[in-house]
């Protein structure tokens, strides 16, 4: 009985890890595309928060989860348009633009949320349920972990090889990486640096909005102020820890998600550790990683440097 209990706990922790990874994977793969284009987008947190709020509004007003997913993506695109215009067109300092976007998103979502509920009981909705893949979900141990997940979790896992293929096996990916390394080479060939950076930011922000949307639709039924709780910053750390490569970013996200899953389960099991400390484990790990990562050979050479034609 004890062995079965331990096995069930391990399965639950690993299955939870994949669910927790889902919004982080969407956002980190989107942010990877953005940063490879030379734009250091620090507005990930705000974009995720806006996507989550848009999903909440659509789910409670329209009653359709897939409509809510669409709303989250569109909200991400809107936020991407703002950050792209500020960084690629106006050439505002990337860090200032991103931090300003986060402040805008925090105030905007809180204001519209309070205007929406107007003191009444907060509307709720039924979120996504697990989708079992026939036959595969019945495989002992592996089945409940890999093949009994939310539909968007499968999409997020497939996004990793898809982004790798885009970056390293396509002409668009070559141009994208050139934006972050030597944008002048594209400019000399008559290709628009600003236009390609704009497109990269819009695409990446759409994925980040989707990440925020899944965070709402897959984990909760109501919106709260600061709903994303710093996950956008974890995405930024994952990019650095993963050395700006899809495989490395995936591993970093998996570690963060595993720590959060462990913290949650240890609380349920009644571990004699303050729950605040358990919940802070992913963030403590983030700080430790940043302190330990001195060399970053994979960072795009022109990341965060506005391009100006000479």
Alpha-beta classification: mainly alpha
Q: Report the total helices.
A: 13
User: What characterizes the major β-sheet?
Assistant: 2 strands, antiparallel
| Cα radius of gyration in angstroms | 20 Å
Mean pLDDT: 91
Helix/strand order: HHHHEHEHHHHHHHH
What is the percent of helical residues?
A: over 70%
What's the N-to-C terminus distance?
Answer: 72 Å
Unreliable spans are none
Principal-axis shape equals: globular
* Strand line-up in the sheet with most strands: 1-2
The percentage of residues in β strands lies in: under 5%
Work out the number of β strands. Answer: 2
Molecular structure report:
The chain has 310 residues and is an all-alpha fold. 71% of the residues lie in helices and 1% in strands. It is built from 13 helices and two strands. It has helices at 2-36, 44-62, 65-89, 94-117, 142-146, 151-168, 171-181, 183-188, 193-219, 231-241, 246-268, 275-279, 281-292; strands spanning 131-132, 148-149. Strands 1-2 form a two-stranded antiparallel ribbon. α1 (2-36) packs across α10, α2 runs antiparallel to α3 and α3 (65-89) runs antiparallel to α4.
Which helices and strands occur, and which strands form pairs?
Elements: H1 2-36, H2 44-62, H3 65-89, H4 94-117, E1 131-132, H5 142-146, E2 148-149, H6 151-168, H7 171-181, H8 183-188, H9 193-219, H10 231-241, H11 246-268, H12 275-279, H13 281-292
Antiparallel strand pairs: 1-2
Helix pairs in contact: 1-6, 1-9, 1-10, 1-11, 2-3, 2-4, 2-9, 2-10, 3-4, 3-9, 6-7, 10-11, 10-13, 11-13
